[in-house]
Amino acid sequence: MLKIQRSGHGKVVFTLSGRIEADDVAELQRLLDLEVADHLLALDLQDVTLLDRDAVKFLARREADGIQLENCPAYIREWIERETDHKSRRKRLNVAKRSAHRRTQ
């Protein structure tokens, strides 16, 4: 079960604790969407105990959008980096395949 606590002192921090699963991603996105665009946003992950791949992908996308991941445990950071590297590698492969296909036509 995921617990979400919001605090705001100069920036808005959502402190997450417990498990983050695919079902929680929509609620987290909804909460982030409710925030004013000019606020700095952060997700504090110190008390996250478990997460699934959908949650990792969500965190990677939010970080790419400029949301800070604070107190991110090493295993989560490594998983985010693997997901990001995997996505980049897949994108490069698709570009290469399209280029090769164009040359053969």
Q: How would you describe the overall organization of this protein?
A:
- By secondary structure, the protein is an alpha/beta fold.
- The protein has one domain: Transcription Regulator spoIIAA.
- It contains 3 helices and 4 strands.
- It has helices at 22-33, 53-64, 74-104; strands at 2-8, 12-20, 41-51, 68-70.
- Strands 1-2-3-4 form a 4-stranded mixed sheet.
- Strand 3, helix 2 and strand 4 (68-70) form a beta-alpha-beta unit.
- Helix 2 crosses helix 3 (74-104).
- The longest helix has 31 residues, at 74-104.
- The radius of gyration is 17 Å and the shape is elongated.
- It starts with a strand and ends with a helix.
- The relative contact order is 0.14.
- The mean pLDDT is 88.
Report the total helices. Answer: 3
- Give the helix/strand class: alpha/beta
**Can you tell me the CATH class?**
Alpha Beta
Query: How are the strands of the largest sheet arranged?
Result: 1-2-3-4
Please count the beta strands (DSSP E, at least 2 residues each).
4
CATH topology heading:
Transcription Regulator spoIIAA
Q: What is the CATH homologous superfamily assignment?
A: STAS domain
Most strands sheet? 4 strands, mixed
Itemize the secondary structure elements and their pairings.
Elements: E1 2-8, E2 12-20, H1 22-33, E3 41-51, H2 53-64, E4 68-70, H3 74-104
Parallel strand pairs: 2-3, 3-4
Antiparallel strand pairs: 1-2
Helix pairs in contact: 2-3
